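Try this one yourself first.
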């Protein structure tokens, strides 16, 4: 038999759930009218705002069929954020565990491919050709066995993110800040090599933890020629 709480979770509407959690977090505040909408986003983001006595919640449709406890965990996370309070750790853990499920991650990647746009510039830049650099590193350091993904320069200049691999669109993107004659080729090669390693050593999920740079990844990265010099060059940027 279900407990009273379980029955509440299974039979209340999303609007009723958010109103209930709102009262628990802010018991002295009048409960606003609530509108919950599942939206076709290209990612797993959800949004909430309180405007003129109305609580508006927009949730990714990735969660439309999620179990009620997961939806309540998200309600606590969003409403605590709205109230500028830390969300209960149990709720954060439960929500992350659900998103890290293999079937949910597969569905999310499919959504990103179908709905998201990957805006990148041509791999032939002003100073460096990413196709040529990839092929050279592939032969020298990967035995020519790495299949080439989509390559390109970023649309925006970024100093904090010099490169990234997007598994949803199977693309390696390097920041345009590297596409300058004064940037040594070694620095560009190292960033490309780092992102190529993400092809060989994918992200590993362990419970609520997401391990991007595994021990195998780090060991392989240390094999890059002139690693210390390349890192010093990037720090100067």
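Now uncover the answer:
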């Amino acid at each position: 038999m279900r407990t009273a709480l379980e029955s509440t979770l299974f039979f209340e509407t999303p609007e009723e759930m958010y109103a209930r959690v709102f009262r628990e977090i802010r018991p002295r505040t009048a409960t606003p009218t609530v509108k919950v909408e599942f939206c076709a986003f290209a990612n797993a983001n959800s949004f909430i705002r309180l405007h003129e006595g109305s609580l508006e919640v927009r949730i990714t449709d990735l969660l439309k069929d999620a179990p009620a406890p997961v939806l309540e965990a998200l309600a606590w996370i969003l409403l605590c954020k709205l109230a500028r309070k830390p969300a209960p750790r149990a709720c954060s853990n439960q929500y992350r565990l659900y998103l890290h499920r293999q079937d949910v991650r597969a569905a999310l990647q499919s959504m990103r491919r179908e709905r998201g746009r990957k805006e990148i510039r041509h791999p032939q830049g002003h100073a460096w050709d990413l196709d040529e650099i990839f092929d050279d590193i592939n032969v020298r350091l990967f035995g020519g066995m790495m299949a080439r993904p989509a390559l390109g320069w970023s649309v925006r200049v970024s100093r904090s993110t010099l490169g990234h691999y997007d598994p949803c669109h199977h693309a390696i993107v390097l920041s345009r800040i590297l596409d300058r004659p004064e940037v040594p080729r070694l620095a560009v090669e190292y960033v490309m090599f780092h992102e190529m390693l993400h092809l060989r050593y994918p992200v590993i999920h362990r419970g609520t933890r997401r391990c991007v740079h595994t021990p195998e990844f780090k060991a392989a990265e240390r094999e890059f020629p002139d690693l210390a010099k390349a890192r010093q060059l990037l720090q100067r940027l």
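Discussion: The first strand starts at residue 33 and ends at 39. Confidence is low (pLDDT under 50) at residues 1-7.
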